[in-house]
Amino acid sequence: MIQETKQSQNTPVIFEYPLREQIRSFLRLESLFSLFERSRIAVHPDNHLHALKLLFEILEILERGDTRSELIKELSRLSLLFSNLKENPNVDSSKLTNFLGQIKQLHQWVLNYEGKFGDKLRKDPLIETVKYRASIPGGTCQFDCPDLFLFLNQSSQVRQQQLKNWIDDIQGVKTSIEVILRITRDNGCWEDRTAPLGSFMLETSEVTFQLLRVRLSTESQLFPEFSCGKHRSNIHFMRFNEFHKKIAIQYPVEFELACCQ
């Protein structure tokens, strides 16, 4: 996936590929939460209808996956990892204490959450109705979903606040994922690499990586495709031709790679 950042014409673009199913789920949720927030703070009713549909996607992922146990495991791992740094004289003890406090708070939130993440939201009358109607092509029309039509004709402030109230119920999930992915990304170091004839192979049998990150110049007009297995990962660089059909690159490509554990 492409990491969502504000891009200028000359700003490099970062592509990310998860090597573990857990990280794959976290990246999807991170993307949906980010899109939801941008739609929520907008003022047009269309943005808020889009925010609702994004909320439905978030709830679907949380319902079918075991996100709670995954978060508990990862937050426990981070707590132990950073607790071991307390005796390191090169570590800022006050920042470390604050960070460990945040991890502990998130861990307690996950443990204390009643039921499955988002259960309260799934039972909300408006969410329940609109989610069903949204699954039908054109089902959110005014005559099909008058309660949604009424909601979208409230003031933008009322709609924004209601969307915030809904997402606040699972805010701890969003914050936990942000922390986990930030630490994961930060432990990868950028290195200059070259892909001969547009392809690059990385051996992963000795070290278990969680995430691969590729940084390319936007001017290159290239994007990577990944094929990853247990022992090695391959990166193939592609571009679009004039018919918007992707074709493989057959020349050396300079790029930056970060392998995150």
Overview of the molecule:
- The protein is α+β, with helices and mostly antiparallel strands and 261 residues long.
- It has two domains: 21-185, YacF-like (Orthogonal Bundle); 189-260, YacF-like domains (YacF-like, Sandwich).
- Helix content is 49%, strand content 18%.
- The protein has helices at residues 21-40, 45-64, 67-83, 93-112, 119-122, 125-134, 146-152, 156-168, 171-186; strands at residues 13-18, 191-195, 199-203, 211-216, 223-228, 232-240, 246-248, 253-260.
- A four-stranded antiparallel sheet has the order 1-4-8-2.
- A hairpin with a 5-residue loop joins strand 6 and strand 7 (246-248).
- Helix 1 (21-40) packs antiparallel against helix 2 (45-64) and helix 1 packs across helix 9 (171-186).
Features:
YacF-like; globular; 4-stranded antiparallel beta sheet; single chain; alpha+beta; 261 residues; 2 domains
Note the gap between the termini. Answer: 17 Å
- Return the CATH architecture of the largest domain: Orthogonal Bundle
Number of helices: 9
Q: CATH first level of the largest domain: which class?
A: Mainly Alpha
**Regions with little confidence, pLDDT below 50 for 5+ residues:** none
